[in-house]
Each structure stands twice: as C-alpha cells, then as structure tokens.
Specification:
The protein contains 9 helices and 10 strands. The protein is α/β, with parallel strands linked by helices. It has a single domain, classed as TIM Barrel. The mean pLDDT is about 95.
Length: about 280
C-alpha cells in the first residue's frame, strides 16, 4: 500500500502549480494555502482557477490534499473585532476549499490572550456553532495541536476533548503536529515515551480523531513550549521517534506532510521524505 506522504508546497504562480512541485518532491499527499496566509482579504478563486486546480490534481496521481488556514485567524480572541474577522475569514477558507474539492482545512485553535483557557475554549465553540450551519458540510476542520507557547490553546490534549464535545464528528478531526506535541511536553523521542503519548491522546481525545499529521522534528527540547521545526532526525525527537510513528500500523492510511525548511531548490523535501520511507521500512542506516 502506498503511504500518503508529502509536504506543504507553494502555490506561487497559480494554485494548480502545487502539483508539479509535489511530483518533483515525490509527494503522494499535499498541503497548501489557498490564499496569502498573512492577509485578511484576498481575491476570490475564479471558476477557471478552480477548474485548473482540479484538472492538475487529477492528472498528478497525488492523493489527499489539505489546506492550512491563515495565521491571522484567532477564534479564541477576546477582542470582538478580531473574533468577527476570524469567523468571516474561516468561513471564506471553508468555501475556498469546497470550490477546489479539498475536504480538509487545518486550523490552529487560537490564543486566549489572557482571558483564560476556559473562556478561550468557549469562544472557539461559540464560533463553531455559528460557522458550521452555513458552511460546506463536505469540508472538515482539522484542529492542529500547538506548542502551547504563551496563551495558545491546543498544547494540552484535553483542550481538544473540550472543543469537540457535542459537535458532529464528521465536521472535525485533529491534525497531529509532531514538533508541536514534543515542544508542548509530550515526549516523542523514545519508543516508550512515544507509546505513552499516543495512549494519553487516545484516552483524552481518541486516536480515531487524528485525520492528518504534520511531520516536523523539533529544534527545541521537549517541554520548551517553543515552535521551531527541524529536518527529520535532526532535532530533539530524532530518528527513533519518527521510526515509531512511521511503523505504527494504526496510522498507515493517514496523510502525513512535512512543514520543514525546504532548502534552496526545495531539495530537502525529497531528502526528508526519502528518510521517512526508510524509517517506515526499517532500512534507515
């Protein structure tokens, strides 16, 4: 069975260009931004752009494609103007995904900015209740765990149990980021600690909720609460942790994408993906 492994790729020059870049790096899955990740307002996707994207996807042989939402979005914000803009922006992102045929949108839960964890979590749930009824039901929101830096929610797995409770499970899932988990204090660097982390996630949230992975090593130590991505095997998770994940049969059919530094010609995606396949096969030297 072909593993669904890939990377976040650029859409510079047109959304459909993502696939040529993905093929070049040996991807069987992709992640993209459907818009500039650092802007609120962007021009809509035209029918021609959407058609070109779908056609390029079909011809590429690449499997799942997920989108990542804009970094400005903060559904946990206590500031009403930011909260309203965040809801509008996320609604737009969901619509853009539907237009492209992309069924998974990765989002960060947000930061409570001093209002407190419970208040922040409730703020996100209220936003979800407002957003879900009038957004495309075929697009899932994949909440991404975070490094827990500052007031960011999602470093503690229990936050996801609270966020998901009572909602239609077809509309949600989790994108598990290895760097973020490790930095937030969930040690992935040994076989024993990896097993403990997955047992804890299963107890609090459920492993069946994991619909995607971000594969990033961590430049900073476990429990540093600092989000700095490193190449696979070159950070504080190391090869052992990634071998455990790549050989974990529970996740064989889950798409996994890199968000690691790309190098001058994107050559590092090719190198990191090759190493991950070696780790999966148990042939890494």
């Amino acid at each position: 069975m072909k593993r669904l492994l890939g990377a976040h790729v650029s859409v510079a020059g047109g959304l459909d260009n993502a696939f040529a870049r993905g093929i070049e790096s040996g991807c069987t899955a992709l992640q993209i931004f459907t818009k500039n990740a650092n802007r609120w307002q962007v021009k809509p996707i035209s029918a021609e752009e959407a058609s070109a994207f779908r056609q390029a996807w079909k011809q590429s042989g690449i499997g799942p494609v997920m989108a990542h939402d804009a970094y400005l979005i903060n559904l946990a914000s206590p500031k009403d103007d930011v909260w309203e803009k965040s809801k509008a922006a996320l609604r737009d992102e969901l619509m853009r995904c539907a237009q492209l045929g992309v069924t998974d949108l990765v989002m960060h839960p947000g930061a409570h900015l001093g209002s407190g964890v419970e208040t922040g979590l409730q703020r996100i749930r209220t936003a979800f209740r407002e957003l879900l009824p009038d957004t495309p039901p075929e697009v899932r929101l994949l909440m991404e765990n975070t490094a827990g830096q500052g007031s960011y929610l999602g470093g503690d797995f229990a936050h996801f149990a609270a966020l998901l409770e009572g909602f239609d499970e077809k509309r949600f899932g989790i994108c598990f980021d290895t760097c973020h988990a490790h930095a937030a204090g969930h040690d992935l660097s040994t076989a024993e600690s990896y097993a403990r982390v997955m047992t804890e996630f299963d107890r609090l949230v459920g492993l069946d909720q994991i619909k995607a992975f971000h594969l990033n090593d961590s430049l900073k130590p476990c429990a540093s609460y600092v989000d700095r991505h490193a190449h696979i095997g070159q950070g504080t998770i190391g090869r052992t942790g990634f071998a455990c994940l790549m050989q974990d049969q529970r996740f064989f059919q889950i798409p996994m994408v890199l968000e690691t530094p790309k190098g001058e010609q994107d050559e590092m995606d090719l190198i990191n993906l090759a190493l991950l396949r070696e780790l999966a096969a148990g042939t890494a030297s």
